[in-house]
Give the backbone structure.
Amino acid sequence: MFTYTEKITNQFFSFSEGEITIQEFQKWIYETEELLEVLGEDKYSKLLSVFFNGIFVKDDLEDLIENFYSESKIGINNEKLIWILEAMIEGRYDVVTGCAVLASLRSFEKGYDFIPIELVGYDSLIEDMVYRYKADKDKAEMNRVIDLYKIEITKIAKNILSSIYTNPNILHGV
C-alpha cells in the first residue's frame, strides 16, 4: 500500500516524525544504494542536492519528501497514517504519541471520521493525567493507568488498520 519500499518509507517517515536526526538521515541517503532505483534519477538528484548545513534543511527535506509523494495513489498523509498505525501495533512508535496524532486527525482534518472518537477521549484523559497525578508518589499509578489505556488504544489501532486494508476507499471519504 506504500509508494516506496518499506525501508525507504520507514526512513522518510522516521525523519519527518523526528525519530532520526538530519545527520542520520543524510548518512542513510549516501549509504542506500536502492534509492536511485526506487526514486528515479530526478528525485534522487534532488535529494542529493539538498544543502545539509543550511538553517532550513529540515523544512527543505520535509517539503521534498512531501513532493515525492505528490503522485501517490493515497497521498502522503494517508500513507503516514498507515505507517503510524503499523508502527504503533509493532511497538516501533509510541502509542500515546500515536493516539495524539490520530485524535488530531479525527478532530481537525476532513476525511478522517473513520477514526473512532474514543481516541480523542483517550488523548484527553492522558493529557489530563499530568495535572491529576502531580506528586511523585502518584506517578506509578499514573503509569499503570496509561499502560491500561495503551492496551485499548492498540486494539483500536488494529481495528482501524484492518478497516483500511478491508476497504481502502475509507481513506478517500468513500
User: Anything to note?
Assistant: The chain has a mean pLDDT of 92. Residues 6-71 form one domain.
